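The protein record filed below.
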Amino acid sequence: MRILMVGAGGIGGYFGGRLLEKGVDVTFLVRENRRKQLAENGLEVESVHGDMKLHPKTLLSGEKANPFDAVLLSTKAYHLAGAIEDIRPYVTENTMILPLLNGIAHIGELTEAFGTEKVLGGLCFIETTLDNQGRVIQTSPVHDLVFGERSGEMTERVRSLQEAFEGTKANFRLSSHIVQEMWHKYQFISVLSGVTSLFRSPVGPIRDQESGMQTVHALLQETGKIMRGLKAPLADKIEETQLDKLLQMGHAMKSSLQRDMEKGLQTEADHFFGYLLQKAKENHLNAPVMNTIFANLKVYEAQRSL
């Protein structure tokens, strides 16, 4: 199976690297500077699950390539429109598109661009980043990638993708409830990203404060209310499950959105919170905590652009 990994950053570099380590035919679609970096230094991964130094095939947008069986999207949401145009020449009639973005709004953009049938559901759980030398740094035991047909069917094509993923040094899991799992992660990451970016703190010190926990509880309720208003397939008592997960996280755990703010980078505020707030408005629902988090992020972005 030929796989095109869009991006060789923290997520794409890690999961693409694990597939390449296994021997899967993986090509990385990258920008010129990243290609030069990979050519000079290789794809370097420092991980608690074992380090890697690989020499991957790379592709620049517009260069010719043979057809790909699957395209894995690991870009930030604000790069999605550009990524869609970049991959158009490489998406054929039988190509599967597997997005690993957080949230849910990107599914509509991808199906509009390529058709409903081509787009799978997907998500990942991993704490990873690029350092100043372009190395992928992965420090947490969790390195999970979940995928499946959005219909829940176990089709021949997802079985073939599962076969390609099996035997890697990362956890690739085929799900028959991928849409529900995507919504669950969306709720979880919205709460984690929301409170850590609002308080500019890892999750532990937030939990230590009564007012911090009150904010967590309120945001869990707001996200659940909005998502259920959208008929999202949330499990019963999912808020309790999400709270337990947050309580079990390491004291120093930060969200990727918070890390982006610390680096002075653009955030996925619109994709995470803007989308939910727009849906809340359409359904006449109040979400004061989420509004505060969104305002905090938009103020940050406005100051960043000065």
